[in-house]
Amino acid sequence: MALSIKNPEADRQPPPRHRKFGTEQGKQVLMAREIFRYWGLPALFMFFASGMSGQTSSCRTVFEVASVHLHRPDKLDQIPLAGPMVDAMRVQGGPGTSAPGSIRYRGVTLKMLASRAYGIRPEQITGPSWVGSDQYDISANVPPGSTKEDLSCMLRDLLASRFHLESHIEKKTLAVYGLTVAPDGPKLVPSPGPQKLSPEEVRTKVEEMQRQQMARNRESTAQILAGKRPRNFRSFGMPNATLEEFAARLSSELDLPVTNETGLDGRWQFNLEWVPERVAGSGPPPEDDTSNGESIFGAVEKQFGLRLHRHKQSIDVLVVDKADRTPVEN
After folding, report:
1. Cβ atoms within 10 A of the Cβ of 175, count?
2. Alpha-carbon distance 220 to 168, whole Å?
3. What is the Cα–Cα distance from 115 to 4, expressed in whole angstroms?
4. In Å, what is the CA distance from 264 to each residue of 126, 184, 188, 260?
5. 150-166 residue pLDDT tens
6. Torsion angle, CA of 197/200/204/210, rounded to 10 degrees?
7. What is the pTM of this model?
8. Where are the beta strands (DSSP E) in 36-193?
């Protein structure tokens, strides 16, 4: 069934900066969270598609100021970027970062924006060729107290109001990595779960986490300089994540989407360490290359008792039916 995601700008009235959860819009935000929790991404797609046709924004917050314009190429564009490097250099700021009060996106494509707005990989977005090539710069002020979910909702609004995006969801058979339990069984550590902390305790905990991260960074640097760890060593941690969330994080490190096929519930602690594999055709390794560590595939199995295997699967794809190549600017 095709579902349209249309621009509500024509009938929209400027919403207040913050919406309370007691309002109708606030109830929709809570409903969206529950839909995703129990029925997953396909149902969430349907919810947003049906809720954005001729209605006002259901976002709890809106960008205070948003600037959108075509990107002017510069020297940084000559550096090939992929995966997490894009997040580090092209997409900065927002909730959960060191600059939560603003976002600064430079040289991002419509695919990249839609990927962040809907929580899917760019490979799950199809449309005119330019949606993956034309680049834009976006700067916006994010209201205090906004969450990552709020930011995604605000980006969906921005796609509708500035690019007049119209799209629908359909099933398509694509190559994916399935995350399954390895033959020897899982090696997962349960998460203690969220704690109820006072503001002072939260501040103390954040400072302690920062100190621990700095210590780990110093240790990694020392091991690399001593030749005990590969120079291209990578890692990430998720102290309280479901396997769905872990699979989504793995997707950002791999060339294909990762689907959770473990059948395991609960929340777990993940701290994954691996060495990225060299890209075929990239030439011989440098003389001091020490990238003989474990690949992400081997690390996932060794550290967590899980296995990644490639296969074809029918998954939801966002099809861009219509969008303005030149966005509405400020």
Report:
1. 13
2. 45
3. 17
4. 31, 15, 10, 9
5. 999 999 999 999 999 99
6. 90
7. 0.60
8. 65-70, 91-93, 102-108, 125-126, 136-141, 166-181, 189-190
